[in-house]
Protein backbone atom coordinates (compact mmCIF):
# COMPACT_ATOMS: atom_id res chain seq x y z
CA UNK A 1 0.00 0.00 0.00
CA UNK A 2 0.88 3.58 -0.55
CA UNK A 3 2.84 5.53 2.05
CA UNK A 4 1.93 3.22 4.88
CA UNK A 5 3.01 4.94 8.10
CA UNK A 6 4.73 2.67 10.59
CA UNK A 7 2.06 2.75 13.27
CA UNK A 8 -0.53 0.47 14.76
CA UNK A 9 -3.69 -0.18 12.77
CA UNK A 10 -6.91 1.43 13.98
CA UNK A 11 -10.51 0.72 13.00
CA UNK A 12 -13.38 3.20 13.22
CA UNK A 13 -16.86 2.30 14.43
CA UNK A 14 -19.21 0.69 11.96
CA UNK A 15 -21.19 3.34 10.09
CA UNK A 16 -18.54 6.01 10.61
CA UNK A 17 -19.06 8.66 7.93
CA UNK A 18 -16.10 9.43 5.68
CA UNK A 19 -16.22 12.46 3.44
CA UNK A 20 -14.81 15.73 2.22
CA UNK A 21 -15.84 19.36 2.43
CA UNK A 22 -15.82 22.53 0.32
CA UNK A 23 -17.56 25.93 0.32
CA UNK A 24 -19.40 27.75 -2.45
CA UNK A 25 -17.25 30.85 -2.89
CA UNK A 26 -14.05 28.83 -2.68
CA UNK A 27 -14.83 26.46 -5.57
CA UNK A 28 -17.85 27.41 -7.66
CA UNK A 29 -16.70 30.34 -9.78
CA UNK A 30 -19.50 31.39 -12.15
CA UNK A 31 -19.80 34.56 -10.11
CA UNK A 32 -22.17 36.18 -12.57
CA UNK A 33 -24.08 33.17 -13.84
CA UNK A 34 -27.81 32.58 -13.60
CA UNK A 35 -28.62 35.69 -11.66
CA UNK A 36 -26.16 35.41 -8.76
CA UNK A 37 -25.85 38.68 -6.87
CA UNK A 38 -22.67 40.10 -5.32
CA UNK A 39 -21.50 38.95 -1.89
CA UNK A 40 -19.23 40.62 0.63
CA UNK A 41 -16.37 38.46 -0.67
CA UNK A 42 -16.79 39.78 -4.23
CA UNK A 43 -16.41 43.24 -2.76
CA UNK A 44 -13.57 42.33 -0.39
CA UNK A 45 -11.53 40.70 -3.17
CA UNK A 46 -11.69 44.00 -5.04
CA UNK A 47 -10.55 46.03 -2.05
CA UNK A 48 -6.84 46.72 -2.57
CA UNK A 49 -4.53 44.94 -0.16
CA UNK A 50 -7.09 42.56 1.30
CA UNK A 51 -6.65 39.36 -0.68
CA UNK A 52 -3.32 37.97 -1.85
CA UNK A 53 -2.46 39.25 -5.34
CA UNK A 54 -6.01 40.48 -5.85
CA UNK A 55 -7.29 36.95 -6.39
CA UNK A 56 -11.07 36.51 -6.57
CA UNK A 57 -13.56 33.66 -6.62
CA UNK A 58 -14.82 34.66 -10.07
CA UNK A 59 -13.64 31.43 -11.67
CA UNK A 60 -12.15 29.41 -8.78
CA UNK A 61 -12.40 25.69 -9.64
CA UNK A 62 -15.29 26.33 -12.04
CA UNK A 63 -17.15 23.69 -10.04
CA UNK A 64 -20.43 25.34 -11.04
CA UNK A 65 -19.89 23.91 -14.53
CA UNK A 66 -17.71 20.92 -13.69
CA UNK A 67 -19.69 19.44 -10.81
CA UNK A 68 -20.49 16.16 -12.61
CA UNK A 69 -16.77 15.43 -13.03
CA UNK A 70 -16.08 16.46 -9.45
CA UNK A 71 -18.82 14.20 -8.15
CA UNK A 72 -17.39 11.37 -10.25
CA UNK A 73 -14.04 11.90 -8.52
CA UNK A 74 -15.77 11.79 -5.12
CA UNK A 75 -17.37 8.50 -6.09
CA UNK A 76 -14.02 7.12 -7.22
CA UNK A 77 -12.57 7.94 -3.80
CA UNK A 78 -15.49 6.17 -2.16
CA UNK A 79 -16.72 9.18 -0.17
CA UNK A 80 -19.84 8.50 1.88
CA UNK A 81 -20.68 12.18 2.33
CA UNK A 82 -19.91 15.52 0.75
CA UNK A 83 -20.26 18.78 2.67
CA UNK A 84 -20.81 21.85 0.51
CA UNK A 85 -22.32 25.26 1.08
CA UNK A 86 -25.15 27.00 -0.70
CA UNK A 87 -24.40 30.54 -1.90
CA UNK A 88 -27.07 32.82 -0.47
CA UNK A 89 -26.52 35.38 -3.28
CA UNK A 90 -27.47 32.74 -5.85
CA UNK A 91 -30.74 32.08 -4.06
CA UNK A 92 -31.60 35.69 -3.18
CA UNK A 93 -29.32 38.04 -5.13
CA UNK A 94 -30.16 40.92 -2.77
CA UNK A 95 -30.42 38.79 0.35
CA UNK A 96 -34.17 39.09 0.64
CA UNK A 97 -37.32 38.90 -1.39
CA UNK A 98 -38.26 36.44 -4.12
CA UNK A 99 -36.00 33.49 -4.71
CA UNK A 100 -34.03 33.07 -7.88
CA UNK A 101 -35.05 29.64 -9.21
CA UNK A 102 -31.98 29.35 -11.45
CA UNK A 103 -29.77 29.57 -8.38
CA UNK A 104 -31.67 26.76 -6.69
CA UNK A 105 -31.51 24.73 -9.91
CA UNK A 106 -27.75 24.37 -9.56
CA UNK A 107 -27.96 22.81 -6.10
CA UNK A 108 -30.85 20.67 -7.27
CA UNK A 109 -28.64 19.22 -10.01
CA UNK A 110 -25.73 18.80 -7.62
CA UNK A 111 -27.83 16.96 -5.04
CA UNK A 112 -29.23 14.61 -7.67
CA UNK A 113 -25.75 13.93 -9.02
CA UNK A 114 -24.51 13.10 -5.50
CA UNK A 115 -27.44 10.88 -4.65
CA UNK A 116 -27.09 9.11 -7.96
CA UNK A 117 -23.62 8.10 -6.78
CA UNK A 118 -24.70 7.22 -3.25
CA UNK A 119 -22.99 10.22 -1.69
CA UNK A 120 -24.87 11.85 1.15
CA UNK A 121 -25.11 15.64 0.81
CA UNK A 122 -24.38 17.67 3.96
CA UNK A 123 -25.48 21.24 3.47
CA UNK A 124 -23.97 24.34 5.03
CA UNK A 125 -26.35 27.24 4.52
CA UNK A 126 -23.86 30.00 5.24
CA UNK A 127 -20.15 29.78 4.55
CA UNK A 128 -19.32 33.50 4.62
CA UNK A 129 -20.76 34.82 1.34
CA UNK A 130 -23.27 37.33 2.70
CA UNK A 131 -25.25 39.16 0.00
CA UNK A 132 -23.66 42.61 -0.32
CA UNK A 133 -27.04 44.34 -0.07
CA UNK A 134 -27.44 43.01 3.46
CA UNK A 135 -23.97 44.22 4.41
CA UNK A 136 -24.90 47.65 3.09
CA UNK A 137 -27.64 47.64 5.73
CA UNK A 138 -25.23 46.69 8.54
CA UNK A 139 -24.59 43.02 7.78
CA UNK A 140 -24.28 40.86 10.88
CA UNK A 141 -24.43 43.91 13.14
CA UNK A 142 -28.07 44.24 12.07
CA UNK A 143 -30.67 41.98 13.63
CA UNK A 144 -32.59 41.97 10.35
CA UNK A 145 -29.84 39.87 8.74
CA UNK A 146 -30.69 37.02 11.12
CA UNK A 147 -34.36 37.25 10.15
CA UNK A 148 -33.53 37.25 6.45
CA UNK A 149 -31.33 34.20 7.00
CA UNK A 150 -34.33 32.25 8.28
CA UNK A 151 -36.30 33.10 5.10
CA UNK A 152 -33.37 32.01 2.99
CA UNK A 153 -32.97 28.74 4.96
CA UNK A 154 -36.66 27.93 4.43
CA UNK A 155 -36.36 28.62 0.69
CA UNK A 156 -33.42 26.24 0.29
CA UNK A 157 -35.11 23.58 2.40
CA UNK A 158 -38.25 23.96 0.31
CA UNK A 159 -36.36 22.94 -2.80
CA UNK A 160 -33.89 20.36 -1.43
CA UNK A 161 -35.47 19.09 1.77
CA UNK A 162 -36.96 16.03 0.11
CA UNK A 163 -33.45 14.78 -0.79
CA UNK A 164 -31.10 16.24 1.82
CA UNK A 165 -31.20 15.00 5.41
CA UNK A 166 -28.31 16.80 7.09
CA UNK A 167 -28.55 20.57 7.45
CA UNK A 168 -26.13 22.92 9.15
CA UNK A 169 -26.83 26.59 9.50
CA UNK A 170 -23.50 28.41 9.79
CA UNK A 171 -19.86 27.63 9.22
CA UNK A 172 -17.54 29.04 11.89
CA UNK A 173 -19.41 32.09 13.16
CA UNK A 174 -16.24 32.96 15.13
CA UNK A 175 -14.52 33.72 11.82
CA UNK A 176 -17.46 35.73 10.46
CA UNK A 177 -17.59 37.90 13.58
CA UNK A 178 -13.98 38.22 14.77
CA UNK A 179 -12.19 38.16 11.42
CA UNK A 180 -14.96 39.94 9.52
CA UNK A 181 -15.83 42.69 12.01
CA UNK A 182 -12.91 42.46 14.49
CA UNK A 183 -9.49 42.36 12.87
CA UNK A 184 -10.79 42.87 9.33
CA UNK A 185 -8.80 40.03 7.78
CA UNK A 186 -11.99 38.62 6.25
CA UNK A 187 -14.94 40.28 4.53
CA UNK A 188 -16.47 42.74 5.18
CA UNK A 189 -13.15 43.90 6.65
CA UNK A 190 -14.47 45.98 9.52
CA UNK A 191 -12.45 46.61 12.68
CA UNK A 192 -14.77 47.39 15.55
CA UNK A 193 -15.10 45.46 18.84
CA UNK A 194 -18.72 46.54 19.40
CA UNK A 195 -19.65 45.38 15.89
CA UNK A 196 -17.80 42.10 16.52
CA UNK A 197 -19.97 41.18 19.49
CA UNK A 198 -23.18 42.36 17.83
CA UNK A 199 -22.19 40.08 14.94
CA UNK A 200 -21.62 37.14 17.29
CA UNK A 201 -25.12 37.56 18.66
CA UNK A 202 -26.87 38.02 15.34
CA UNK A 203 -25.03 35.05 13.85
CA UNK A 204 -26.20 32.92 16.77
CA UNK A 205 -29.68 34.33 16.34
CA UNK A 206 -29.54 33.49 12.63
CA UNK A 207 -28.69 29.95 13.63
CA UNK A 208 -31.62 29.85 16.06
CA UNK A 209 -34.14 31.35 13.66
CA UNK A 210 -32.79 29.32 10.74
CA UNK A 211 -32.91 26.05 12.69
CA UNK A 212 -36.49 26.80 13.75
CA UNK A 213 -37.47 27.52 10.13
CA UNK A 214 -35.84 24.29 8.95
CA UNK A 215 -37.65 22.25 11.58
CA UNK A 216 -40.97 23.94 10.85
CA UNK A 217 -40.47 22.87 7.23
CA UNK A 218 -39.78 19.27 8.28
CA UNK A 219 -36.01 18.97 8.80
CA UNK A 220 -34.95 16.29 11.27
CA UNK A 221 -31.17 16.63 11.39
CA UNK A 222 -30.13 20.20 12.07
CA UNK A 223 -26.83 21.48 13.42
CA UNK A 224 -24.09 24.08 13.21
CA UNK A 225 -20.36 24.00 12.55
CA UNK A 226 -17.97 25.82 14.88
CA UNK A 227 -14.20 26.19 14.85
CA UNK A 228 -13.61 25.79 18.55
CA UNK A 229 -10.11 26.61 19.73
CA UNK A 230 -7.97 24.10 21.57
CA UNK A 231 -6.44 26.64 23.95
CA UNK A 232 -3.47 25.65 26.09
CA UNK A 233 -1.41 27.60 28.64
CA UNK A 234 2.24 28.25 27.84
CA UNK A 235 3.03 27.07 31.36
CA UNK A 236 0.60 24.48 32.71
CA UNK A 237 1.70 25.34 36.26
CA UNK A 238 1.04 29.08 36.00
CA UNK A 239 -2.21 30.38 37.54
CA UNK A 240 -2.06 33.58 35.48
CA UNK A 241 -1.64 31.58 32.28
CA UNK A 242 -4.70 29.61 33.37
CA UNK A 243 -6.61 32.90 33.64
CA UNK A 244 -5.47 33.83 30.13
CA UNK A 245 -6.75 30.48 28.86
CA UNK A 246 -10.08 31.10 30.61
CA UNK A 247 -10.57 34.46 28.89
CA UNK A 248 -9.56 33.29 25.42
CA UNK A 249 -11.65 30.16 25.83
CA UNK A 250 -14.56 32.40 26.85
CA UNK A 251 -14.21 34.69 23.83
CA UNK A 252 -13.65 31.89 21.36
CA UNK A 253 -15.56 28.87 22.67
CA UNK A 254 -17.95 29.47 25.53
CA UNK A 255 -19.47 32.56 23.87
CA UNK A 256 -20.84 30.13 21.26
CA UNK A 257 -21.17 26.83 23.12
CA UNK A 258 -22.99 28.14 26.17
CA UNK A 259 -25.90 29.87 24.42
CA UNK A 260 -26.15 27.02 21.88
CA UNK A 261 -25.96 24.11 24.29
CA UNK A 262 -26.87 25.58 27.68
CA UNK A 263 -29.27 28.29 26.58
CA UNK A 264 -27.33 31.14 28.18
CA UNK A 265 -24.28 33.31 27.58
CA UNK A 266 -21.64 32.81 30.29
CA UNK A 267 -21.73 35.63 32.86
CA UNK A 268 -17.96 36.26 32.82
CA UNK A 269 -17.98 36.59 29.04
CA UNK A 270 -20.95 38.97 29.04
CA UNK A 271 -19.13 41.08 31.59
CA UNK A 272 -16.09 41.25 29.31
CA UNK A 273 -18.21 42.03 26.26
CA UNK A 274 -19.98 44.82 28.17
CA UNK A 275 -16.69 46.75 28.13
CA UNK A 276 -17.28 47.32 24.40
CA UNK A 277 -21.06 47.50 23.98
CA UNK A 278 -24.19 48.18 26.00
CA UNK A 279 -25.50 44.77 24.88
CA UNK A 280 -28.60 46.53 23.54
CA UNK A 281 -28.84 43.91 20.79
CA UNK A 282 -29.52 41.12 23.30
CA UNK A 283 -33.29 40.76 23.66
CA UNK A 284 -35.45 38.68 25.95
CA UNK A 285 -36.14 35.32 24.36
CA UNK A 286 -33.05 35.33 22.12
CA UNK A 287 -31.10 32.88 24.24
CA UNK A 288 -34.01 30.47 24.33
CA UNK A 289 -34.19 30.50 20.53
CA UNK A 290 -30.44 30.03 20.17
CA UNK A 291 -30.45 27.21 22.70
CA UNK A 292 -33.06 25.02 21.02
CA UNK A 293 -31.65 21.48 20.86
CA UNK A 294 -29.51 20.53 17.87
CA UNK A 295 -28.92 17.08 16.44
CA UNK A 296 -25.36 17.44 15.31
CA UNK A 297 -22.35 19.59 16.13
CA UNK A 298 -19.75 20.12 13.43
CA UNK A 299 -16.21 20.69 14.67
CA UNK A 300 -13.52 22.17 12.46
CA UNK A 301 -9.98 21.72 13.75
CA UNK A 302 -6.64 22.74 12.30
CA UNK A 303 -4.21 23.88 14.99
CA UNK A 304 -3.91 24.59 18.72
CA UNK A 305 -3.58 28.00 20.38
CA UNK A 306 -1.09 28.68 23.17
CA UNK A 307 -1.46 31.70 25.43
CA UNK A 308 0.43 33.21 28.34
CA UNK A 309 -0.20 36.09 30.72
CA UNK A 310 2.49 38.72 29.99
CA UNK A 311 2.13 42.25 31.28
CA UNK A 312 2.43 44.62 28.33
CA UNK A 313 1.65 41.98 25.68
CA UNK A 314 -0.49 43.27 22.83
CA UNK A 315 -3.13 40.53 23.05
CA UNK A 316 -5.06 39.09 20.15
CA UNK A 317 -5.95 42.46 18.64
CA UNK A 318 -9.28 42.69 16.87
CA UNK A 319 -9.50 38.93 16.78
CA UNK A 320 -9.91 38.91 20.58
CA UNK A 321 -11.04 42.34 21.82
CA UNK A 322 -9.80 43.20 25.30
CA UNK A 323 -7.02 40.64 25.59
CA UNK A 324 -4.18 43.07 26.21
CA UNK A 325 -1.73 41.47 28.63
CA UNK A 326 -2.11 38.11 26.93
CA UNK A 327 0.51 36.81 24.56
CA UNK A 328 -0.58 34.50 21.77
CA UNK A 329 2.54 32.39 21.38
CA UNK A 330 4.16 32.20 17.97
CA UNK A 331 3.77 28.72 16.50
CA UNK A 332 6.68 26.35 17.11
CA UNK A 333 7.56 22.86 15.95
CA UNK A 334 6.30 21.35 12.75
CA UNK A 335 4.04 23.77 10.86
CA UNK A 336 1.90 23.60 7.76
CA UNK A 337 2.47 26.27 5.12
CA UNK A 338 -0.31 28.31 6.72
CA UNK A 339 2.17 28.67 9.58
CA UNK A 340 -0.15 26.64 11.79
CA UNK A 341 1.20 24.17 14.34
CA UNK A 342 0.71 20.50 13.64
CA UNK A 343 -0.62 19.06 16.87
CA UNK A 344 -3.10 16.19 16.52
CA UNK A 345 -3.39 15.90 20.30
CA UNK A 346 -5.25 19.22 20.20
CA UNK A 347 -8.09 17.51 18.36
CA UNK A 348 -8.40 14.74 20.94
CA UNK A 349 -8.38 17.25 23.78
CA UNK A 350 -10.91 19.48 22.07
CA UNK A 351 -13.38 16.70 21.28
CA UNK A 352 -13.09 15.33 24.80
CA UNK A 353 -13.61 18.74 26.34
CA UNK A 354 -16.74 19.44 24.28
CA UNK A 355 -18.10 16.00 25.07
CA UNK A 356 -17.50 16.52 28.82
CA UNK A 357 -18.72 20.11 29.13
CA UNK A 358 -21.59 19.94 26.64
CA UNK A 359 -22.66 16.29 26.67
CA UNK A 360 -25.31 14.66 24.58
CA UNK A 361 -24.69 16.10 21.11
CA UNK A 362 -23.24 13.82 18.44
CA UNK A 363 -20.24 15.39 16.74
CA UNK A 364 -18.67 15.21 13.32
CA UNK A 365 -15.33 16.65 12.27
CA UNK A 366 -16.62 18.85 9.47
CA UNK A 367 -13.13 20.12 8.49
CA UNK A 368 -9.55 19.09 9.07
CA UNK A 369 -6.65 19.32 6.68
CA UNK A 370 -3.41 21.00 5.74
CA UNK A 371 -2.20 23.50 3.16
CA UNK A 372 1.08 23.82 1.36
CA UNK A 373 1.92 26.69 -0.90
CA UNK A 374 3.18 26.82 -4.41
CA UNK A 375 6.49 28.48 -3.61
CA UNK A 376 8.61 25.39 -4.14
CA UNK A 377 6.06 23.71 -6.37
CA UNK A 378 5.95 20.79 -3.99
CA UNK A 379 2.17 20.43 -3.84
CA UNK A 380 1.86 20.04 -7.58
CA UNK A 381 2.45 17.29 -10.14
CA UNK A 382 6.09 16.27 -10.49
CA UNK A 383 7.84 14.88 -13.55
CA UNK A 384 5.92 11.64 -13.06
CA UNK A 385 2.64 13.56 -13.23
CA UNK A 386 1.75 12.73 -9.65
CA UNK A 387 1.49 14.86 -6.53
CA UNK A 388 3.53 13.31 -3.75
CA UNK A 389 2.03 15.14 -0.80
CA UNK A 390 3.54 12.99 1.94
CA UNK A 391 3.24 15.84 4.46
CA UNK A 392 -0.52 15.98 3.97
CA UNK A 393 -0.83 12.20 4.32
CA UNK A 394 1.06 12.34 7.58
CA UNK A 395 -1.04 15.30 8.84
CA UNK A 396 -4.27 13.45 8.06
CA UNK A 397 -3.02 10.17 9.47
CA UNK A 398 -2.07 11.86 12.74
CA UNK A 399 -5.39 13.64 13.07
CA UNK A 400 -7.41 10.54 12.27
CA UNK A 401 -5.53 8.70 15.00
CA UNK A 402 -6.34 11.60 17.32
CA UNK A 403 -10.02 11.41 16.37
CA UNK A 404 -9.96 7.68 16.95
CA UNK A 405 -8.40 8.22 20.36
CA UNK A 406 -11.25 10.58 21.26
CA UNK A 407 -13.76 7.89 20.27
CA UNK A 408 -11.86 5.39 22.42
CA UNK A 409 -12.24 7.81 25.33
CA UNK A 410 -15.99 7.88 24.88
CA UNK A 411 -16.60 10.82 22.52
CA UNK A 412 -19.65 10.38 20.28
CA UNK A 413 -17.92 11.20 17.00
CA UNK A 414 -19.89 10.12 13.96
CA UNK A 415 -17.72 11.08 11.04
CA UNK A 416 -14.77 12.91 9.52
CA UNK A 417 -14.69 15.24 6.51
CA UNK A 418 -11.35 16.26 5.06
CA UNK A 419 -10.76 19.88 4.12
CA UNK A 420 -10.70 20.01 1.25
CA UNK A 421 -11.80 17.94 -1.71
CA UNK A 422 -10.14 20.36 -4.13
CA UNK A 423 -7.44 22.99 -4.00
CA UNK A 424 -9.44 26.19 -3.85
CA UNK A 425 -9.70 29.90 -3.08
CA UNK A 426 -8.22 30.15 0.41
CA UNK A 427 -9.88 33.47 1.39
CA UNK A 428 -7.31 36.19 2.19
CA UNK A 429 -4.55 33.87 0.95
CA UNK A 430 -6.09 33.56 -2.50
CA UNK A 431 -5.00 30.52 -4.52
CA UNK A 432 -1.48 30.33 -3.14
CA UNK A 433 -2.45 27.92 -0.36
CA UNK A 434 -3.58 24.49 -1.45
CA UNK A 435 -5.71 22.43 0.94
CA UNK A 436 -7.02 19.89 -1.59
CA UNK A 437 -6.53 16.16 -1.69
CA UNK A 438 -7.14 16.78 -5.39
CA UNK A 439 -4.82 19.16 -7.18
CA UNK A 440 -6.38 21.82 -9.41
CA UNK A 441 -4.45 23.33 -12.29
CA UNK A 442 -6.11 26.73 -12.40
CA UNK A 443 -4.99 27.42 -15.98
CA UNK A 444 -6.66 24.35 -17.45
CA UNK A 445 -8.99 23.32 -14.60
CA UNK A 446 -7.46 19.86 -14.79
CA UNK A 447 -7.89 17.84 -11.59
CA UNK A 448 -5.15 15.49 -10.37
CA UNK A 449 -5.86 13.35 -7.30
CA UNK A 450 -2.86 13.69 -5.01
CA UNK A 451 -1.24 10.76 -3.21
CA UNK A 452 -3.33 11.82 -0.20
CA UNK A 453 -6.51 11.17 -2.19
CA UNK A 454 -5.38 7.63 -3.01
CA UNK A 455 -4.39 7.12 0.60
CA UNK A 456 -7.78 8.43 1.80
CA UNK A 457 -9.54 6.08 -0.60
CA UNK A 458 -7.80 3.17 1.16
CA UNK A 459 -8.63 4.57 4.59
CA UNK A 460 -12.30 4.73 3.67
CA UNK A 461 -12.21 1.28 2.15
CA UNK A 462 -10.65 -0.20 5.32
CA UNK A 463 -12.67 2.05 7.65
CA UNK A 464 -9.40 2.77 9.37
CA UNK A 465 -5.66 3.15 9.27
C1 LIG B 1 -11.74 27.17 7.79
O1 LIG B 1 -11.40 28.25 8.51
C2 LIG B 1 -12.80 27.52 6.79
O2 LIG B 1 -14.05 27.00 7.16
C3 LIG B 1 -12.48 27.14 5.40
O3 LIG B 1 -13.31 27.81 4.51
C4 LIG B 1 -11.02 27.41 5.13
O4 LIG B 1 -10.66 27.27 3.80
C5 LIG B 1 -10.23 26.48 5.99
O5 LIG B 1 -10.63 26.54 7.31
C6 LIG B 1 -8.74 26.69 5.91
O6 LIG B 1 -8.36 27.92 6.37
O7 LIG B 1 -2.90 30.81 13.71
O8 LIG B 1 -2.24 28.60 14.41
O9 LIG B 1 -3.66 29.92 15.84
C7 LIG B 1 -10.35 28.06 9.44
C8 LIG B 1 -10.13 29.25 10.30
C9 LIG B 1 -8.13 28.23 11.24
C10 LIG B 1 -9.02 30.38 12.00
C11 LIG B 1 -7.02 28.36 12.20
C12 LIG B 1 -7.93 30.49 12.95
C13 LIG B 1 -5.83 29.83 13.73
C14 LIG B 1 -4.66 28.92 13.68
N1 LIG B 1 -9.09 29.22 11.22
N2 LIG B 1 -6.92 29.54 12.88
S1 LIG B 1 -3.26 29.59 14.46
TrEMBL record:
Signal peptide: none annotated. Pfam families: Glyco_hydro_1 (PF00232). Coiled coil: none annotated. Keywords: Carbohydrate metabolism, Cellulose degradation, Glycosidase, Hydrolase, Polysaccharide degradation. It comes from the Bacteria. Substrate binds at residues 26, 127, 171, 302, 419, 426-427. It catalyses: Hydrolysis of terminal, non-reducing beta-D-glucosyl residues with release of beta-D-glucose. It is an enzyme of class 3 (hydrolase). Belongs to the glycosyl hydrolase 1 family. NCBIfam families: BGL (TIGR03356). This is Beta-glucosidase.
Amino acid sequence: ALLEPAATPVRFPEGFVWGAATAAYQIEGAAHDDGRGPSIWDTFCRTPGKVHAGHTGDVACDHYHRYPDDVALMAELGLHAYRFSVAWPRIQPDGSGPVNPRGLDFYDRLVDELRGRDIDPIITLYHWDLPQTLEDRGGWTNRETAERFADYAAAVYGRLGDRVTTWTTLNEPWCSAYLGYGNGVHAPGRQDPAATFAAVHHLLLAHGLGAAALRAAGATTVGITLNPAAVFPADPESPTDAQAVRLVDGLHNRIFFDPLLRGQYPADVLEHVARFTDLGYLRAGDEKLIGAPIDLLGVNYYAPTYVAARPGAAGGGGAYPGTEGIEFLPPVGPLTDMGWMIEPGGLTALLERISNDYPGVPMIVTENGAAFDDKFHRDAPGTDGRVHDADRVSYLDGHLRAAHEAIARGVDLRGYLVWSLLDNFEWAEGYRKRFGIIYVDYLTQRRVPKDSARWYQEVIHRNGL
